[in-house]
Amino acid sequence: MLNIAVVGVGYVGLVTGVSLAEIGHHVTCIDNNKEKVHTLQSGIAPFFEPGLDELMKKNVANGRLAFADDLSSGCSNAEIVYIAVGTPQKNDGTVDLTDIEKVAIDLAHIILQDMIVVTKSTVPVGTNEYIKQLIDTNIVSSASIEVVANPEFLREGSAIHDTFHGDRIVIGSNNEWAATVIESVNKPFDIPIVKTDLRNAEMIKYASNAFLATKISFINEIANLCEKIGANVDDVAYGMGLDQRIGNAFLQAGIGYGGSCFPKDTRALVQLSGNMKHEFQLLKSVITINHNQQKLLIRKAIDRFQTLADKRIALLGLAFKPNTDDMREAASIPIVNELLKEGVDVVVYDPATMETAKKIFLNNVQYADSIETAITGADIVFILTEWDEFKRLDIHIFNQLMKDPVVFDGRNCFDLDQIKKAHIEYHSIGRPTVYRKT
Q: CA 200 to CA 369: how far, in whole Å?
């Protein structure tokens, strides 16, 4: 078992650090945000992720996990340093490597012994070679540094499960010894390991996310066509998914993808392609389709009511997906902004994201503390996130609490046969509309 430091205690960094501690390594997670570090030392994660708090408290208690706000002290005994800082998108679609560059240079100033630097952050092809160059250029000791790319493939809301039950672990390095060491670090996970070079590892990450985003946009286009020809996308997707060459994952029609990965990574890959004078037409279409899909419910509602002005619309779900409090690139944001432009009285509810929502929407919407509070007196309900709390809902509640219940379900949470037995009007994605019986 090794001494490991993880720099950057955001989503990827914290999950990485906690998981490495769980399999036996001694891990110090480092972040320059002292308030965040203090919170972590108290056993509280700064974001919602099922199972994370329990593992974090367990490994702090057994002495394998610690937190620090100083790079030098946090890395003092480290044999391996993971870089997991943010790589946000710039306005032109390229990736901002400012934090990566700072960590690399700062490491170069404090490293005294030979070390392996592992990049967890999602970075453009060629970045790991650049990181090694930065460290080699700025290093103040005679230590030797090797760089390894070890991209993450975690789904928010399922990150702990994915870490211990993933499909593969990708290890990229131009140095066989370094790759073998990181392979041994990850061996206790008992997950297939793919060893390759730096650029291939970086490209695997981008290509994987781009392909999954493509599946989502594809099934959403099929769903939109199904509505026009009278087919049901649920049945179509089920029939497609039985083909092992296709599979059923990411074939759930809805209002598009969001979060911190797919939007950023698809745009970054398009930008990278452009820099290489390669026109990635397919991925450009994927991005356009997703952008349009996010406002589909509004178009449906306007088609139904002609105007939404002065109506009270309740939004159930704000997170980009269930089991997370992440609203980055969530469909709820453009939907709320568009509804406000239409003069709608907007009330919102989400089981996990309410504090985040208040920072985004300020006082422009009403905040409900339950489903019942949100939908009481509403003219329309939009379902934007497929939380289990919503999927298990007794649909008769819409009759009981709404004026004349009209529901636009952006995540196809309910079975149509179940809906037909209730006295509500129900619009979903890629499926026949159910009207109230008169």
A: 47
- For residue 135, give Cα distances in angstroms to 7, 51, 109, 200, 320: 15, 36, 9, 21, 37
Q: Please state the length of the chain.
A: 438
Distance between CA atoms of residues 37 and 146, nearest Å: 28
Q: What's the pLDDT at 42? A: 86
Q: Which residues of 204-236 are buried (b: 16+ CB within 10 A; e: fewer)?
A: bbbebbbebbbbbbbbbbbbbebbeeebbbbeb
Q: How far is CA 338 from CA 299, 304, 334, 341, 344, in A?
A: 10, 16, 6, 5, 9
Proportion of the chain in helix, strand, coil states, percent, rounded to 5: 45, 15, 40
Rounded distance, CA 20 to CA 118, Å? 13
DSSP string, 41-57: HTT--SS--TTHHHHHH
Residue 109 reports pLDDT greater than 90: yes
Nearest residue to 241 via CA among 222, 263, 261, 265: 222
- pLDDT, one tens digit per residue, over 320-377 is 999 999 999 999 999 999 999 999 999 999 999 999 999 999 999 999 999 999 999 9
* Catalytic (active-site) positions: 261
CB 71 within 8 A of CB 111: no
Give the integer Cα–Cα distance in Å for 88 and 133. Answer: 22
Round the average pLDDT of the chain to a whole number and report it: 96
Burial of 183 (0-12, 13-18, 19+ CB in 10 A): middle
d(CA 269, CA 266): 5
Identify the CA nearest to 315 among candidates 349, 264, 345.
349
- Helix (H), strand (E) at residue 389: helix 388-391
